[in-house]
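Why show two proteins at once? Because comparison is the fastest way to build intuition. When a single record is shown, students tend to memorize it. When two are placed side by side, the eye starts asking what differs. So, the first record is below.
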Amino acid sequence: MANRVLLTAGALKVSKPGFNVMTAADADLIFSSDFSQGSLFSRGSLTFSSNTVKTVNYGKTFVNMPMIMFNVNRGTPMVYNEIYINDFILSASPTAASAWLRVGSSSFSYHGPLVDGMAAKYIIWDLDL
């Protein structure tokens, strides 16, 4: 069995199954504290006026798909009680999704059971390192 986890005073590394963490190339690591982390690109909020798709354009095209954290308010007072991260689909039926978040390289879109005045907050993380 290969050594998969390395923890030292200055680093943490975890290798893919079958690779020895002591000799693994970066491409064979699942995690390394040496890797750069994503940076905050943008944040914002949306207010919905009907049950339609809302799309947010980033203003650039990412090489690596950005990570989107999307939080929907479904109550009064404004309590943000759901969070979707990247491509999320919620469905009671295999053919009709009731809510979804689709992430692309230049925009993301959200559709869900919405009512007038419903709000959402989002954070876009840039993973182009």
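Second record. Ask yourself what differs from the first in the token line.
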Amino acid sequence: MYNPETDKRARVYKLFEDGRLNFFAPADYSTAGDLFETVKEILECISTKENLKAKKRELKALSTPYKLYKDVEKILGNKAGGKRIPKREQELLASLKDQVEGNTD
């Protein structure tokens, strides 16, 4: 921030160019000032990022059972070596597939 009355900006320009500031604005703390708008935009950005992280965690929770099912299917297929997978292991695989949401065939 800089004093809008003196408008001395050399210091903030240097700090900004040195990468020590991300933003600068006049020291006007009113809701009509640039500072208020910049802080508001930063907070909205943080909120959006956090919402997207939460959404990604939800999607990960949905996709994890599918990955587990496919990994076990691959292991059992390799273990069987082209032979029929034993009934107990088929039941395990079916149980894992039941935990997967949606049509994955």
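One difference worth noting in the second protein: Helices lie at 10-17, 34-80, 87-98.
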